[in-house]
Design brief:
It is a single chain. The chain has 135 residues and is mainly alpha-helical. Helices cover 33% and strands 6% of the residues. The strands form 2 sheets. It has a two-stranded parallel sheet. α2 links the parallel β1 (42-43) and β2 (66-67). The chain is globular. The chain starts with a helix and ends with a helix.
Length: 135
């Protein structure tokens, strides 16, 4: 699952896989997709507070969803592509892993700078392909 159309269209083919484009919060339409419970599901969203909120929401019905490319190493490796998140969420997210929650809180607390955001389509493609292949 990917939040962004550019990334969705550029995803490499992978045998036995299906790519889903959520258009941000559009993944809420999948809450009742029972067939997803039988699949291994990866979610790749923007590295910002809303990306983590979308992930948390997905896990409300599909707790097995794992994030990919939503980690501190990815964020720090792409400082040149950082932007500003216009309106960060301060929602309490209860379905993130410990690592995801630390990064979410760091983004909220401006640990890396004021309103830091890394949009997924700005992640270097060679970096993304390697991590996707390993996922």
């Amino acid at each position: 699952m990917t939040e962004n159309l550019v990334n969705f269209l550029a995803l490499p083919e992978r045998t036995g896989s299906l790519a889903l484009f959520g258009k941000g919060y559009g993944f809420s339409a999948l809450h009742e997709a029972d067939w997803l419970r039988e699949c291994s599901v990866l979610y790749w969203g923007d590295l910002d507070t809303h990306g983590f909120q979308i992930l948390d929401g997905l896990r409300s019905e599909h707790p097995h969803v794992a994030s990919v490319l939503m980690d501190e190493a990815t964020l720090l490796a792409h400082r040149d592509a950082w932007g500003t998140e216009p309106s960060a969420t301060r929602a309490e997210l209860t379905r993130l892993t410990a690592e995801e929650l630390l990064l979410y809180q760091a983004l909220q607390d401006h640990t890396y700078g004021s309103a830091v955001r890394l949009e997924q389509e700005l992640i270097h493609w060679d970096w993304a392909l390697q991590r996707l292949a390993d996922a």
